[in-house]
Protein 1
Amino acid sequence: MSELIVASEPTKLVRQAAEWLAREVTKAITERGSCALCLAGGRTPQPVYRALAAEASIDWERVDVFFSDERAVPPDHPDSNYLMVSLALLSRVPIPPARVHRMEAERPDREAAARDYERLLPLRLDVLLLGIGPDGHTASLFPGSAALDERERRVVPVVGAKAPAERLTITPPVIEAGRQVAVIASGEDKAAMVARAIEGPLAPKTVPAQLARRGSWFLDEAAAARLTAQKVDR
Ligand code: 6PG
């Protein structure tokens, strides 16, 4: 793990994660001219995306947005990760529409949708934000899933354990190749898996979020409650 931030209040968690994202996006643009930013779905990052939209320092003309996973619903469906990210972030910043790369998980042929998305994904994402589920999943890589054994393909269709079940997800090599990776988690229901992901014996097939172990972890106190590691409150 490169960094463990445990925030004492929800507003601090949001601010710390948003500042980290803004810093890493800007660093990528400075170093390489653009930033391939991959975003998680779920509930936890929503306020972070709103805070990120308010970060005036980001040159959105040079950012490409990708998604870690998507549910098999149309882009205007309440369960769509794309819709969530659009409302919280993309509609509030001057990002060129052509730089927003939505996973088309609603296509009847999800296999083809996965292959098409793989062609869009750069070999290395610059910045990757992930979440973790109470079962230890990250992106839509669920415990025991065959997608966790994938070494060649970078995007695959899966049937997950969280509704809506049918999804597209990035695979382990994409997380491993990410230049900067962060995980955000809050709430006591995540505490046991957060501890196993960061400190437990390495077994990503059982605790997929271990794929992001080397990253920066942004936690609230409830999610960090079972860790023995030293915590930094900012
Ligand atoms: C999804 C996600 C998923 C999410 C975790 C945590 O589409 O469901 O990308 O991996 O990050 O399930 O979700 P919450 O933040 O809602 O707890």
Protein 2
Amino acid sequence: MAESVQIREVGMRDGLQSIAEIMPTETKLAWLDAEYAAGVREIEVSSFVPPKLLPQLADAEAVVKHALTLPGLTVSALIPNSRGAERGLALGVHEMNFVLSVSEGHNLSNVRRSTEESVADFRRVVELCREQGGANRPRVNCGLATSFGCTIEGDVDEDRVRRIANEVAAAGADGIILADTVGYGNPAAIGRVFRRVIADIAPVPVAAHFHDTRGLGLANVLAAFAAGCKAFDASLGGLGGCPYAPGATGNIVLEDTVFMFESMGLETGIDLEKLAAAREIVHRALPEVMLYGAIAKAGLPRNFHPVAQAA
Ligand code: ZN
């Protein structure tokens, strides 16, 4: 059997949250269905933030309910706090992603709490899920934002990333997501930090969440993979540029990430030709929004063989 990697679509949350024009719920459901048909089996479908803070994701409940009808799909949602965790528990999502920033300045400006206070909040979220979730409780991951640099503080100390990853694992995280939130990471730093954190907290899995802001997205993916990471966040068409910063791209491009791994003989389970249908849905719904990706532009090379077909 071919070795495989796991790719999670985060465009419906991370991509859409930076776009002002509200995507209708039916379009989100059509997008979900098209990605499911293409073989995507893990999707962060929304965020349980207060609807008035983020009108784009005010339909979180409806999107989650629909996603839960798709067999074999891991339905994932971002939770900012215990209140969000309660909404996720009530709906029965499979996976919740709490986020805190390793950079003190970034965490203070985002949630007006120190990083240590947010680690304590995460501990309470884990306890809440253990108490109320029973045997079928969702997996609770912790995302460590700004792990590779911060727009406020610049460099982020690698030992600090490691220490907080260990604290969060000790608090009961089912998984950790090391995030290069603003695209400051480089392959050398990413290789070092992933290798250390994976060794420290095994068997708790460590996933990668990278933005392609400065063009190093796929190089960083490869560095994390070489360091032992097997799970990667990506968004269709790299959705998620900041509307106020022209040229600032969003997450790493889902299609290109799938292409890279499949070309290397690593199975993703995702069909690139079917993924094009999902891209068309997003493009038609948000014609003003820039979609990225080399494969969408150039097409698949003649010698491309998806792993599933070669096996
Ligand atoms: Zn992100």
